[in-house]
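for the recovery benchmark. tokens below, seq after
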């Protein structure tokens, strides 16, 4: 193999690295719910447990991964706007008076998140776009779906 060919291959591989590590976090909902689109300010209020009911009166449950995990970096920065430890404290405080139906549920994996949203009426979750299954519905944020230009939960 020539040096030029090796150099060209290395440049192509290095040029693709940013695309390989960037990811979109999808908002998914229980399939039986009517939420199809949400505005970013509404999503922030839901994620911070400031909005506790959907317009139809059904209680809202947010399902997330551990706020300190690398997978949650985009969510913590763009939705919560606080340190991961502060998000953890928010989760505890939000759930304090809601023992029978937590406001925010923290799970260990994307698969567990999707299954929890799938089985919980009124639930919405924040998950890696590549973990979505047919058991949940993808919710648009401000009219945009994950992977579309201008999608607000796109991260590196």
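predicted aa per position
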């Amino acid at each position: 193999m020539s040096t030029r060919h090796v150099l060209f291959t290395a440049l192509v591989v290095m040029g693709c690295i940013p695309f390989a590590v960037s990811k979109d976090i999808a908002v998914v909902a229980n399939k039986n719910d009517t939420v199809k689109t949400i505005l970013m300010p509404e999503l922030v209020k839901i994620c911070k447990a400031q909005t506790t009911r959907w317009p139809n009166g059904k209680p809202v449950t947010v399902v997330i991964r551990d706020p300190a995990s690398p997978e949650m970096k985009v969510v913590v920065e763009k939705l919560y706007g606080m340190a991961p430890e502060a998000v953890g404290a928010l989760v505890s405080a939000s759930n304090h008076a809601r023992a029978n139906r937590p406001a925010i549920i923290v799970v260990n994996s994307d698969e567990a998140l999707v299954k929890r949203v799938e089985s919980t009426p009124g639930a919405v979750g924040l998950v890696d776009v590549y973990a979505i299954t047919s058991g949940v519905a993808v919710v648009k944020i401000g009219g945009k779906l994950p992977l579309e230009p201008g999608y607000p939960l796109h991260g590196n």
